Amino acid sequence: MQKIIIQSFLLLLLHQIGVAQNIKGKIIDATTQESIPYANIRVNDSENLVSNAEGFFTLSESNSSEQTKLSISYLGYANQQINVADLKKSNFIIQLVPAVYELNDVTISNVKPNPDQIMANVKANLKSNYVSDGTPSKDMVFYRRSDYFKPKTIDVEIEKSTGFTKQTLQKANADIKNFSNNLITHPPKEFTDILGNYYTTNVKKESKTSFVSKLEVLKATKLKNEGSATSSEDLEKKAMNMMLQHLDSTKYYRVKSGLFGSRDSISLRKDFNSRKNKKIGIEATNQLTSAKRNITSFLSQNNFAQTKKFNFITDPDLYNYTYEGTTYFADNEFAYVITFKPRRSKAKFSGKLYVSENDYAVLRVDYTLDEGEKLEGFNMKLLLGIKVSQNVSKGTIIFQKKSEGNGYYLQYATIDSGMYFYVNRPLKFIELAKGEKDVLSIDMKIEGNANSTTEFLNISRSKIATETIEKIKEVDFKFLNVKSYDASIWKQYNAIEPQEEMKRFKAIN
């Protein structure tokens, strides 16, 4: 009770001081008083929201009037419909009650469902449940990516740089050491939020059908320390700037690492690298192209019919399944609850599945790497001084039945991934020239972890004509760089409420 009183007071206080003029609420279990993450909040029968991992959600300004209708649903709980006026009366806390089944709603049988047969049916129905029929659609989507670079050791030393004195190299190595220590003591973080309309359709030309997607970005923010690096691209730029002090951008070099050398020529000249990338099919990308590619890839990688990543669904022979019971998820509709653990060596995950009794669609899955398991990696630590392994892979994926036609679409997903890396190698750049050559020798040892969390929410989905999609002209955008989370930026839109870690983060120049 004391916990509820404190939560209610804080929520009421935040509302009274008018944080961005938005309504903020929390969803909890009526019995245990624990927060309920990833509950679906349907707003005025038109848009979807989801409670974050801490159970919180925020309504946009336009949906904050007392008449705004909220429909809350969560597997195993009775659906609840309230309006914002009711939410205020309950001190901004929604308590969901476990569903109670009427006997005539449940099929009574002495035969316990066979989980292996259920999973066989899931696999047999993947195509009908998850493969798109090409119906043109407009989806308002919210995409958030949080990146963390956590170095444990960074020892980089320039042993030789032609044209630099010993004293100058000492100064350069001291600068590198300071930069490395700063990365270790202040591990870089970066939060990227994108809200936009994502259009998809199948276009048939000359008897060939091709997939077409377009993205219209409505709002995009990036929160990170100015001058810090989180992504591999940012770190690559910083490394390049360091080398530019020791290499001539007008010359060509060969790279040698340990016993191995490269026959390829490299240069720091932009025109050289541009020609080389074009030759091997790499084109420069703008922000829009990159964002659309990330969203399209995320949808594909988390579609059970398009990826083999989730082998606990696509290859059920690898796992042991246990039937845990049946739970309520919609009006007079139920889902099988099935847990799974590895049976064979190729199986890596454990978790829980919620499978529709009607069409054997996986409505939700919570998965994680089983204890002691790792995904694919590269371990040549002794021979080459390199080791990489993916040691974090977990997530929650929720699908929603399409209102038109058959099948399901991704409504919400939160995916955590991470890897351990170790590099302990010398690196040498040798100028391609006759006679005296420029040489840069670097000795480096780097060890640490890189992690990322990606969240996706389909806020609203509607049909649209293919001709309309074809007429849309995509326009590049620029991220709004912010130094701390500002709720007022999103006051006009329904978006995923950030967790406390993101709210507390403040950029340090």
Briefly summarize what is shown.
With 509 residues, the protein is an alpha+beta fold. The protein is 21% helix and 41% strand. It folds into two domains: 2-100, Immunoglobulin-like, CATH 2.60.40.1120; 129-470, no CATH class.
What secondary-structure arrangement, pairings included, does this model have?
Layout: H1 2-16, E1 23-29, E2 40-43, E3 47-50, E4 56-59, E5 69-73, E6 80-83, H2 84-89, E7 93-96, H3 115-124, H4 126-130, E8 137-161, H5 166-185, E9 189-205, E10 208-224, H6 232-244, E11 252-257, E12 260-261, E13 266-267, H7 270-279, H8 287-301, H9 311-314, E14 319-330, E15 333-342, E16 349-356, E17 362-369, E18 377-380, E19 386-401, E20 408-431, E21 439-463, H10 466-471, E22 480-482, H11 500-504
Parallel strand pairs: 1-7, 10-22
Antiparallel strand pairs: 1-4, 2-3, 2-5, 5-6, 8-9, 8-21, 9-10, 11-12, 11-13, 11-20, 14-15, 15-16, 16-17, 17-19, 18-19, 19-20, 20-21
Descriptive report:
GO terms for molecular function: carboxypeptidase activity. It comes from Flavobacterium pygoscelis. Keywords: Carboxypeptidase, Hydrolase, Protease. InterPro entries: CarboxyPept-like_regulatory. This is DUF5686 and carboxypeptidase regulatory-like domain-containing protein. Helices cover 21% and strands 41% of the residues. It has 509 residues and is α+β, with helices and mostly antiparallel strands. β15 (333-342) and β16 form a beta hairpin. Residues 1-20, 102-106 and 279-284 have low confidence and may be disordered. It has a 15-stranded mixed sheet that branches. It contains eleven helices and 22 strands. The chain has two domains: 2-100, Carboxypeptidase-like, regulatory domain (Immunoglobulin-like); 129-470, no CATH class. The protein has helices at residues 2-16, 84-89, 115-124, 126-130, 166-185, 232-244, 270-279, 287-301, 311-314, 466-471, 500-504; strands at residues 23-29, 40-43, 47-50, 56-59, 69-73, 80-83, 93-96, 137-161, 189-205, 208-224, 252-257, 260-261, 266-267, 319-330, 333-342, 349-356, 362-369, 377-380, 386-401, 408-431, 439-463, 480-482. The relative contact order is 0.18.
